[in-house]
């Protein structure tokens, strides 16, 4: 199964080449996915799945759109 | 000087039919006539400046003040009048705040208080519209006051050249219908979120890092982005900077949402964030 992945701002450097159809294992969580990408957990502040904010332990499903957001404060 | 009760009559007499680009016509009060009537009114004890009083009276008569002609019919006369009667508290006059102020002054938000204790530095020139070769090294609040006076003298503008701590934020928000968080960095945002909730008013907030950013509306008591980002941590803009297009994008969306709320419409982003990335040109609305 695959998810569409978008890593924002400073997390974009962790974007895998196949982000638009990134393979995940059944039962894999949003936090597990971020960890596998090498994203330091302290830098990951918000996770969105299909336009909804979710916790790190949310399990991913085939076809999910996943967005990962760091702390952003610039003005 | 016309007596107050005569104002409506003077407006009716000076109003002229104006052809609309889309066909049809409306009654319009020219800018010149608006200024002339305002001068004859003089100052009063009402919260509105004379210019705003004339504009409000015209709108109540179904007559369009010329300067707002191209706001119609996106905003109705009643909504335009509501904007002129509204009161906004804007915190931060940097990249986001300077442009939000410009857009809301042009929109005719009647009373705006804006706070920023900072002075302009050369590194502000890339994105902060109020920062020019002339205003550099001066107070941001002073440049803001000068700009509002140039753009729309109907706006009663209160500049506050002070960095607000949480207690001052609470006082600053008193009497406002809406708070706008145009702060820079993460540190002061949670306090502003708390104080807007304590004041019982919505908060429109935004931030940018590189080409990415977000805009959100937080209703009193609800969670906002600052609850997740916290204060004092490392922020993405420290690495990626704050280029003008992303800042201006966020500011324009903030202004549109502020007008929604001040005009009495439903906020478009309550409990949600509009997340954008100008590198990939993607916009997504996500709920918090």
Helix fraction of chain A?
A: under 10%
N-end to C-end Cα span of chain A: 39 Å
Helix residue percentage of chain B = 25-40%
- Described by its quaternary structure, the protein is heterodimer
* Major sheet characteristics of chain A: 5 strands, mixed
Number of helices of chain B: 11
Rounded mean pLDDT score of chain A: 97
Q: Which helices and strands appear, and what pairs or packs with what?
A:
The complex is a heterodimer of chains A (75) and B (288).
Chain A: E1 2-7, E2 22-23, H1 30-36, E3 46-49, E4 52-54, E5 65-69
Parallel strand pairs in A: 1-5
Antiparallel strand pairs in A: 1-2, 3-4, 3-5
Chain B: H1 7-14, E1 16-19, E2 25-29, H2 31-41, H3 50-60, E3 64-65, H4 77-84, E4 87-91, H5 95-107, E5 111-115, H6 140-151, E6 156-160, H7 166-173, E7 178-181, H8 189-199, E8 203-209, E9 212-218, H9 225-229, H10 237-240, H11 244-262, E10 272-277, E11 282-287
Helix pairs in contact in B: 2-3, 3-4, 5-6, 5-11, 7-8
Written account of the structure:
The complex is a heterodimer of chains A (75) and B (288). The relative contact order of chain A is 0.31. Helices cover 9% and strands 27% of the residues of chain A. The longest helix of chain A is centred in the middle third of the chain and has 7 residues, at 30-36. Chain A has 75 residues and is mainly beta. Chain A starts with a strand and ends in a 6-residue tail after the last strand. Chain A is globular and about 40 Å long. Chain A is built from one helix and five strands; from the N terminus they run ββαβββ. Chain B has 288 residues and is of the alpha/beta class. Helix content of chain B is 38%, strand content 19%. Chain B contains eleven helices and eleven strands. Chain B has helices spanning 7-14, 31-41, 50-60, 77-84, 95-107, 140-151, 166-173, 189-199, 225-229, 237-240, 244-262, and strands spanning 16-19, 25-29, 64-65, 87-91, 111-115, 156-160, 178-181, 203-209, 212-218, 272-277, 282-287. In chain B, the strands form two sheets. In chain B, strands 6-5-4-7-8-9-10-11 form an eight-stranded mixed sheet, with helices on both faces. A three-stranded mixed sheet of chain B has the order 1-2-3. The longest helix of chain B has 19 residues, at 244-262. The termini of chain B are far apart. The model of chain B has no long low-confidence stretch (mean pLDDT 96). The chains are: A mainly beta (75), B alpha/beta (288). Chain A binds chain B through residues 6, 8-10, 12, 42-43, 45-46, 48, 51-53, 67, 69-75, and chain B through 92, 94-97, 182-186, 189, 206-210, 212-214, 225, 228-230, 233-237, 239-242, 247, 275, 277, 282, 284-288.
């Amino acid at each position: 199964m695959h998810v569409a992945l978008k890593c924002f701002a400073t997390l974009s450097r962790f974007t895998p080449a196949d982000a638009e159809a990134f393979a995940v294992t059944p039962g894999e969580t949003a936090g597990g996915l971020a960890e596998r990408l090498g994203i330091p957990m302290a830098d990951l502040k918000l996770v969105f799945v299909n336009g909804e904010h979710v916790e790190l332990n949310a399990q991913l499903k085939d076809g999910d759109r996943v967005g990962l957001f760091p702390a952003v404060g610039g003005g | 000087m016309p007596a107050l009760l005569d104002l409506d009559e003077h407006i009716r007499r000076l109003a002229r039919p104006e052809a609309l680009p889309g066909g049809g016509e409306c009654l319009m009060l020219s800018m010149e006539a608006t200024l002339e009537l305002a001068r004859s009114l003089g100052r009063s004890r009402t919260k509105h400046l004379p210019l705003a009083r004339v504009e409000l009276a015209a709108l109540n008569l179904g007559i369009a003040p010329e300067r707002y002609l191209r706001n119609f019919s996106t905003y109705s006369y009643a909504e335009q009048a509501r904007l002129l009667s509204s009161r906004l508290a804007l915190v931060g006059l940097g990249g986001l705040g300077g442009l939000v102020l410009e857009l809301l002054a042009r929109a005719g938000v009647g009373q705006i208080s804006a706070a920023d204790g900072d002075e302009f530095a050369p590194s502000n020139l890339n994105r902060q519209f109020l920062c020019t070769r002339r205003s550099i090294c001066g107070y941001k609040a002073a440049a803001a006051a000068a700009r509002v006076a140039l753009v729309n003298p109907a706006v009663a503008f209160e500049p506050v050249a002070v960095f607000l701590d949480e207690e001052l934020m609470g006082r600053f928000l008193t009497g406002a219908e809406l708070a706008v968080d145009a702060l820079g960095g993460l540190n002061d945002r949670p306090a502003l979120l708390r104080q807007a909730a304590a004041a019982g008013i919505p908060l429109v907030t935004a931030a940018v890092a590189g080409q990415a950013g977000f805009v959100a509306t937080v209703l009193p008591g609800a969670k906002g982005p600052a609850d997740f980002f916290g204060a004092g941590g490392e922020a993405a803009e420290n690495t990626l900077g704050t280029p003008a297009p992303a800042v201006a994008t966020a500011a324009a969306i903030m202004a549109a949402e502020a007008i929604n709320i001040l005009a009495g419409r439903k906020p478009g982003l309550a409990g949600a964030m509009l997340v954008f990335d100008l590198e990939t040109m993607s916009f997504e609305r996500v709920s918090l």
